[in-house]
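Figure 2 data, in text form.
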Amino acid sequence: MSANTTATSELTGALVFVVDDNELLGEITAQLISSAGYRTRLFHQGRPARDAMLTAPVTPRVLVTDFDIGDINGLDLIREARAHLPGIKTLLVSGTAAPEALAAHPIKPDAFLAKPFLAATLIGTVDQLLTPSRATV
């Protein structure tokens, strides 16, 4: 088995938490990510997602969160997730947060997508977040 095949097989089935207060958009986002071979858990508010991250028998590898998620905002959820799961990768999605406001915020997601986005862009971004960077020797 080649190194590339091994890396790919390790990523297949990785757990991705999806948080969006819009039930339909959350369902669509989770289904798109699932269609790429990842496992997903969907939440419609931040605190239940945070609590599940802390108690999940399988640690999520990626957190995909909307900015406006009702009980807390997506950047606060990212901060809390990183405090408990330092290796988690984060993708913030938003149709309302201004890029200037996000740039000024001290919490930076690993990636950002403005809504609406293409399915291929979402899946490609999750793939990139899960692909280990190639260190040069």
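Caption note: The helical segments are 3-11, 23-35, 46-55, 74-84, 99-104, 119-130.
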